[in-house]
């Protein structure tokens, strides 16, 4: 995630990091070159009698295009924001567990439970990003438990089950009544919900037909545009084509980046920083020294 | 559901599987041919004095059309995404039951309950898809129970009732207090909600008048278009008509595909794969060997 | 609700039942005739010097019109879909009550409670539709109870209170602890929520100023249109006017139909069929023979 | 709130009550007169060489205007509908309290609690409307309690606290266990939520910058319009300007009316009628004679 | 937050405080001056043969621009409104705690708990605004506790943990059963949710690529506009350019202001006034003299 004070107007025009420009520049240039060629041909009258230049059909095509881009854009932004909400919920579930375990559990099972929950967050982050997080798991977790978790289909899920086993043990030993067990489990349930939502967003792309239709319409539009523009805009045609291509390809690429918000790209969510917040919450609850908040590096928070 | 790494620009232009093109190609060609005919007639001056060509009325028609297509598109996408969310919720309800039953139930009733829940998921999938799933039900379920379920109006619902009967038996035997029974039943309640939502989406089409109005306006639009275009676009008329038809018919068909997301079409939801996740959760909870995750075949996850 | 397999392109163009065409046809014809008159007058030069024909003002009017129609359309569709969701929730509340009463209640109070709940659904349906449903209430309900219900301001509400009285009696007799009573009442609370939401939708129209503004703008638009079109479209003017009138009056009427979704019109919700699902759930829970699902008659499910 | 059967097309064109026309008529006339003046000047060639008439810039301005009006319109409608939902929730909270108090409380504290809750609803209505409601409070409430409530910063809130005190007294006297107290308080909590949401809507206007920007753009638009129209529309300019002004000023005023939905204007919510529903629910629960439902007077329900 | 009775039409045109005009005026003037220059050059025929003036390309660019501005505007407004909802929820959580603690807790721990909760609200306000609030914390709070809180990474969070410690102490001393502790903690959980949501909104900007794309498209649009306008609008070009720039830059700036709603700018949320409401609720619950509601100063409520 890019975190920076909003730069001035000039700074905004020149900002490169986090922009979609680097990704769509080749496509913009290609469309511009194509428009140059069309203009040159049109200026030499080779298109006469074939195309009578008019922009009006493009306003019609624009209807479908604006529906496609706008629904897709809204949908991907909603995914991004829902993902952020889910990880924001994780923050207060962990904090609440830190608080509620203090009411119902004794020191040792409390520590055990909170470490499982912390490990769950780190493992989930690893699963969503396809990374190994073993080094960042709480060091007090027994290595055999970590090994067993990593041998499962879904290590994060295993850690939640493990937290449930702590509750089961305390309940069966009579140190936790049914109400308290249910109250504590409610937070594990919520964490399970965060995990399922994250997996849903990470593994369910927008309907492929949608991406195809939006992408194709945008490309057809930009490559037909010079024929409509050249009659009215002359040598401004490549400029306009490039600008229109910039906005449409830019929107297309933006939607693509927001569709899967859990990676390490510039506009993805700062899962590392959120997990650090969990580290702090758990450390302070257990009376251990708390690490620092993660800071952005070159405007980017990981 | 189509799952593939986003192909390059060229790959996106050529992708066939999951695209709506195969379904609307005949309609596009027909509209294009009609436009050819109109252009030929117009070029031979047979329309003079009858139609003075202008595109402007189409921007007016476009207002109504864009409202219709955009509301319909948003509504069907929301249905698709809500269906996915419901089945995502099922994932964490099953996992949570696996965890919470470990707190409150003994081994045997726990196994029984989890198998009922698993059977519920498979039976619901079968009901939504109109398929027989008997072979995929947990093999430990007594055949008489399965027979009884299948003889009911709603076999999936019967399995949830059966899970409730396990709780009732344990509660009446005094092995489960009221709080624990209520806590466990909360998850059955949520699964019942997933089922009702799935049935709602599967059995309630968009208001028929809506589909009709959107469909008709799109067709009228595309078949009137050549008369408006031919004056300005000449022999480009069939090309433009075909492209506009592609986007409008494409949107129409896309909405139709997303309206009922539980089938086996390319853009439908991967219910088989989700049920496999349940199989894994339950197997790992019961200490049984867990099956593999389902993999996409030719980019399609069933 | 219209339930039919999507007909082919031709079938969709000709479908009559469930369409808004029958309701707006007179208005379309009137607008078309008016446009004929304007065209005839314009062709005889009587408008010259008064109107210089241009369509451009209509794109401006179109801005306000599209906002009005689109917000109104979205709002009425949301009402329709929320109503469907509420009655879908009723389905799983009834099923859950069938299940949870099996855990906490003995046979007789269970039967009593479920029949009150069933009567609640039927009575609510009757109240929303302004119909008498006495014949369809569960036959085991004492006639005096039914009489008392029907003498109240809100018979459906009385039945829920009656269900609450069953719980109160069992609780005071010590056969139901506080947790169990609260757990059962949670479902009565949810049913009360469904009722309040249904009454809200049935008795709160969209703000009247909204309906007026949308309706008037659409009419002004369609009756001014011929003056703008006649210069460019000649004798095509009545055709275009009729088509534009079809889409705008169609959207207007569609919104009106979806605004109150509880009636018996073609696009209204199938409350009878949903109540039949409740009948089945309760019958199967009580071990009684279950009736058949209701089937659509001439594509319409009541 | 205006409640009337939808009048015919003519009735809709002529309806006055509940329409925004009376509020915006002076502004429409002013814009129309201004347009007359511009047309007269233009006809006498005084604008030549200064303005070359064109409508196209207005389609550009229209982009910003449509975003502003549409977001503002959606936002104010959502406020109106949310307010209605909150007061609809109050209906079923009161009914549920009537039911649940029957399970857990004895006759006297039950009566006391329900009267506090009823007084809460009336007092909140009074606070939102800036009216005195003392005469409509339940007559059995001790005058000293009412006096004390009215001396507080927030009398409605005091009544909920008072209801809580009834629960506290019963709980401390051992007549109400913890579960029952929590169950009953859940409804007071929900009523507290309804109150906070109502206060939020009543006291938080849309961001003022938003209102300003939308208002100003609409006015600038309507007063520049004659310059663009006069070249193409001649003496139709004032007509078109007035119609466009009607739709834009109408939307502006409509948003303003829906922004604060708790007053007594024609499109505001019928809080009196909803409070009467509470009166009925409580009276029937306590076995007292229930008043009649409030009826609309001249189509308006207060 | 600006709170004022809606001024008349003239007052709305002239209002300065809370308007975005002061912030975008330099940019509007710059765009207007640039348009003057372009017009002067065009009038002297220096552009001939290079640009053939036409506005049509701008309607195309307008598609992308309207999607960008509208999605961004909707998203930032939603953030602003969600933030208001969260702080509105805090109001009724505090009031509910005032009520529920009266049921379950004795006087001393009740006072202690409510003061922690009050301190949490003030500290959170301070953290969100980057201000010191020590002077406004409840004076009865022990100084050592406040010191400890301020030494933590997250002082507000510490205060909630402290409230949890009060519950833990009472629970372990046997003065609070499991149900009551869980009931009270539910409100701390909700406050924790308010805090996490506030932090989410305060620390997560919209995706930077979004802001960039919207900003750049708006600027490119406004600086290209004179070339398109000058052919049709002559010396009206600078006027139109300035007006279009006003609406687009205004929307851009508006979105920026709503994106982070917790500051002290004119359109930000009145956190001070909301915290004062908490002060009143807690004071009245504890029988202490309640302070006055905060009043707007020069139309602005802090």
Automatic annotation (TrEMBL), chains A, B, C, D, E:
Keywords: Cell membrane, Ion transport, Membrane, Transmembrane, Transmembrane helix, Transport
Topology relative to the membrane: Multi-pass membrane protein
Pfam families per UniProt: Bestrophin_2
Stretches that traverse the bilayer: 20-41, 53-71, 220-249
Transmembrane helix listed as a keyword: yes
Subcellular localization(s) per the UniProt record: Cell membrane
UniProt-listed InterPro entries: YneE/VCCN1/2-like
Superkingdom field: Bacteria
Family to which this protein belongs: Belongs to the anion channel-forming bestrophin (TC 1.A.46) family.
Protein name, as recorded: Bestrophin
Species: Marinobacterium weihaiense
């Amino acid at each position: 995630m890019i975190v920076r004070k909003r730069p001035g107007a000039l700074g905004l025009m020149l900002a490169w990091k986090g922009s979609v420009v680097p990704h769509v520049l080749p496509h913009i240039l290609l469309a511009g070159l194509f428009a140059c060629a069309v203009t040159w041909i049109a200026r030499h009258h080779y298109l006469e009698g074939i195309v009578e230049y008019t922009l009006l059909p493009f306003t019609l095509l624009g209807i479908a295009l604006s529906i496609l881009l706008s629904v897709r854009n809204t949908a991907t932004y909603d995914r991004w924001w829902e993902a952020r909400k889910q990880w924001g919920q994780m923050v207060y579930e962990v904090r609440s567990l830190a608080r509620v375990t203090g009411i119902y559990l004794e020191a040792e099972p409390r520590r055990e439970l909170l470490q499982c929950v912390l490990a769950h967050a780190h493992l989930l982050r690893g699963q969503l990003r396809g990374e190994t997080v073993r080094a960042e798991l709480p060091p007090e977790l027994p290595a055999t438990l970590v090994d067993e978790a990593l041998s499962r289909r879904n290590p994060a899920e295993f850690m939640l089950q493990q937290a449930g086993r702590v509750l089961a043990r305390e309940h069966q030993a009579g140190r936790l009544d049914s109400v308290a067990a249910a109250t504590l489990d409610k937070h594990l349930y919520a964490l399970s919900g965060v995990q399922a939502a994250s997996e849903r967003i990470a593994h369910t792309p927008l309907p492929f037909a949608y991406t195809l239709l939006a992408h194709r319409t945008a490309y057809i539009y930009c490559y037909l545009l010079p024929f409509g523009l050249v009659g009215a805009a002359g040598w401004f045609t490549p400029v306009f084509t490039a600008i229109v291509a910039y906005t449409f390809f830019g929107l297309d690429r933006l939607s693509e980046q927001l569709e899967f918000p859990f990676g390490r790209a510039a506009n993805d969510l700062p899962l590392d920083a959120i997990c650090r917040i969990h580290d702090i919450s758990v450390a302070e609850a257990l009376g251990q020294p708390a690490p620092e908040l993660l800071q952005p590096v070159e405007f980017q928070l990981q």
